[in-house]
Specification:
Layout: H1 18-40, H2 43-49, E1 55-57, E2 63-65, H3 66-75, E3 91-93, E4 96-98
Length: about 100
Amino acid sequence: MSEVGRPADDVPGAGTGGADAAMVEALRVAERRLQRAQLASDVAELDRLIDDRLVFTGPDGDLYSKQDDLRVHRSGRQSMTRVDEEDLAVLVAGDTGVT
């Protein structure tokens, strides 16, 4: 971990070099695109950005998939009015990244 509590790969220039830093920045940009798409319920953009293997825990404690998420955005049953990003950790391992 870096001294600010993030994985070392989240620090620009850390890791094996510039390629890692470029991937970290690309993931940060993609995360911001995801946030904008969530706010707009832009299902086409969400479909592009969310991995097909997504599984997440909803506020009710149940597990949901990418298709579940797209379905509630498409139906209008879910409407986000704001996103408050408190921290964004980015982990890069080889050619895989997670925010």
